[in-house]
Amino acid sequence: METNCSSEVYYNEGIMNYEEGNYELSVENFKKAIELDDSVFDYYYNLGITYTNIEEYDLAIETFNKGVSLNSKDADLYMNLGIAFYNKGEFRKATKAHNKAFFINSCNDENCNYAGIACCALKKYKEAISYFRQAVKLEPNNETYNFNLAQVYYETEKYDLAEECLITISRFNKQNDAVYFLMGQMQLKQRDDDLAKDSFERTLKFNPDHKEAQATLDEINERKASKENRRIVKPKEEVSEAEIETNIKDYLNTATMLLEKKEYEVAAKALQEILTLIDKLPKAATQYKI
């Protein structure tokens, strides 16, 4: 009985050290508690958590596995075992651990999210979607879960579903720059430069240091300027009357289209070109009722 009390003292000291952020001392106290009594699951569990916090993932995995021998039905242990495997880059083992945690307790939203992340690392997007959807079902307003689901929908080109997730986030946080950036990326994939431009501008509004958004926005603006410059091609210096008439028709159609789109500056350039051509062929003014 005295031994158990002593182990509990060390364990409680370890808990206090952990809460204070003194992880090294916390490890020492948890290890002393285990030396005195190696039959307590919580000692191994909390030691494993502490090892994870100081990025000693091999020791964390070893400790969690010892905890399994004492309690093989603890979902939180398997979840944290999965996190340790993931941080080591052992994604298959991470997925396996998270699957066990989900089997034991399918209502743990954190584990569902971590399981989805591990599946994404293996490009198992169908499984990832299933886990992220369960996480969102359990916590509908969680930004991280909704964003992770949107991200995997984006990877699988399910843009409408991804947009729904991003809209959900924006309803309760209109300043999430990651949301607008992903929205812009989707709009680029769908070849809508105007909407993408607006999304990247919003990204920069909330995060002016977002370099990728700025670089992509610059590319869109350059592409748009290049298109505008190519819209009007001046005729050759010496052309026939038939060629002049054809050019006038083309400029007239272009100007009409641009005016409908309210792109007045470029439309004005087209109309100016028509006036220049009429100087060379005055009868065209009467012929086309200009």
SSE layout:
Blueprint: H1 2-19, H2 23-36, H3 41-53, H4 57-70, H5 75-87, H6 91-104, H7 109-121, H8 125-138, H9 143-155, H10 159-172, H11 177-189, H12 193-206, H13 211-231, H14 241-260, H15 264-280, H16 283-287
Helix pairs in contact: 1-2, 2-3, 3-4, 3-5, 4-5, 5-6, 5-7, 6-7, 7-8, 8-9, 9-10, 10-11, 11-12, 12-13, 14-15
Structural class: mainly alpha
Tell me the Rg in angstroms.
Answer: 32 Å
Proportion of residues in extended strands: under 5%
The tally of helices reads 16
Helix content: over 70%
The count of strands amounts to: 0
Mean pLDDT: 89
**Describe the biggest sheet?**
none
What would you say this structure looks like, in words?
The chain has 290 residues and is an all-alpha fold. It has a domain of 60 residues. 79% of the residues lie in helices and 0% in strands. Helix 14 packs antiparallel against helix 15.
Key structural traits:
290 residues, mainly alpha, 16 helices
Quick synopsis:
The chain has 290 residues and is an all-alpha fold. It has helices at 2-19, 23-36, 41-53, 57-70, 75-87, 91-104, 109-121, 125-138, 143-155, 159-172, 177-189, 193-206, 211-231, 241-260, 264-280, 283-287.
